[in-house]
């Protein structure tokens, strides 16, 4: 069993925890906001029973939990005993003046304002209550001067997994030009120059999913040369798109009718990318037309 990564997001109210949880969601984390600390262990058990479907989790746990929050460190100590769970504490903070200004702009009530009345007094009390937790944090980020974009870059650099394969989903679609091109493809490739099985009587009723068609297309020297150059290009492009922050890439491959050549190459490219551990979804849009 692979270990599950937990990030406990906590810190000062108004320091950016709401934005942080949205960023973690974009990074592929399973996110829960305002989880009572007493439920951490139970939630961890459920994640361990997910058969790997949940492998990275971000939880916002803060002063809104009231009396439950006071036992956060005690509940986290239970995770230390879990063999297949690693956790980090991310603490977000900001200066008093910044927090006061943010509360004035949003006109929201500080969680401790009912106890203290004035915003500044509530902030000081919260800072005192969080002192021990801040001291045990693995990462402290001061957002006083940070924009949302800067916070996103900071979190990505610290918590995004290194593997490129986890950062992008790839959709492959075969289609026939005579039925129109897919409007949502980021990249479009035309394979109508390849040998066409449509003109072979025994292959015409078959599709690119059939071995006979695949062998007919792939054995030709022009096909082998194209395949090598095409896959090399795709292999180069995907990391470049990831660096630019793209999390979904759609690639369309078309031939005349969308039944033989395009289907064959979508299947070939799918196998190639899956072997590199990318997440791939394939669709043969026009494979059943004119059959």
In terms of structural class, how would the helical and strand content be classed?
A: alpha/beta
Q: By CATH's scheme, which homologous superfamily of the largest domain applies? A: P-loop containing nucleotide triphosphate hydrolases
The biggest sheet, with number of strands, parallel, antiparallel or mixed sense and barrel status, is:
5 strands, parallel
Per the CATH scheme, the topology name of the largest domain is: Rossmann fold
The end-to-end span amounts to 46 Å
The amount of beta strand, in percent, is: 15-25%
The overall pLDDT average reads 87
- Based on CA inertia axes, which overall geometry fits? elongated
Radius of gyration: 26 Å
Work out the helicity level. 25-40%
The secondary-structure element order is EHEHEHEHHHHEHEEHHEHE
Weakly predicted, low-confidence segments: none
How many beta-strand runs? 9
Strand order of the largest sheet: 2-3-1-4-5
CATH-derived architecture of the largest domain: 3-Layer(aba) Sandwich
Give the number of helices.
11
CATH class of the largest domain: Alpha Beta
Integer count of domains = 2
Quick recap of the structure?
The chain has 291 residues and is of the alpha/beta class. The protein is 40% helix and 19% strand. The radius of gyration is 26 Å and the shape is elongated.
């Amino acid at each position: 069993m692979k270990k599950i990564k937990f990030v406990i997001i906590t810190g000062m109210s108004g320091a950016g925890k709401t934005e942080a949880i949205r960023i973690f969601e974009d990074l592929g984390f399973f996110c829960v906001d305002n989880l009572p600390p007493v439920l951490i262990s139970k939630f961890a058990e459920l994640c361990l029973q997910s058969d790997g479907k949940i492998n990275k989790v971000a939880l916002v746990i803060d002063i809104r939990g009231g009396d439950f929050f006071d036992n956060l460190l005690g509940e986290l100590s239970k995770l230390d005993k879990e063999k297949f769970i690693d956790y980090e504490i991310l603490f977000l903070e900001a200066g008093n003046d910044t927090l006061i200004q943010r509360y004035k702009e949003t006109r929201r009530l500080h969680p401790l304002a009912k106890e203290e009345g004035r915003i500044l007094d509530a902030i000081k009390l919260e800072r005192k209550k969080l002192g021990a937790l801040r001291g045990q944090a693995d990462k402290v980020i001061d957002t006083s001067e940070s924009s949302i974009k800067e916070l996103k870059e900071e979190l990505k650099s610290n918590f995004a997994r290194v593997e490129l394969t986890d950062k992008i989903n790839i959709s492959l679609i075969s289609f026939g030009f005579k039925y129109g091109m897919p409007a949502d493809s980021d990249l479009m490739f035309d394979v109508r120059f390849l040998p066409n099985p449509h003109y072979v009587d025994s292959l015409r009723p078959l599709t690119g999913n059939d071995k006979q068609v695949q062998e007919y297309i792939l054995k030709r020297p022009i096909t082998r040369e194209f395949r090598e150059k095409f896959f090399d290009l795709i292999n180069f492009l995907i990391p470049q798109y990831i660096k630019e922050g793209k999390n979904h890439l759609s690639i369309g491959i078309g031939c005349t009718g969308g039944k033989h050549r395009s289907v064959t190459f979508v299947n070939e490219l799918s196998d190639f990318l899956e072997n590199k551990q990318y997440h791939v979804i394939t669709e043969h849009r026009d494979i059943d037309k004119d059959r």
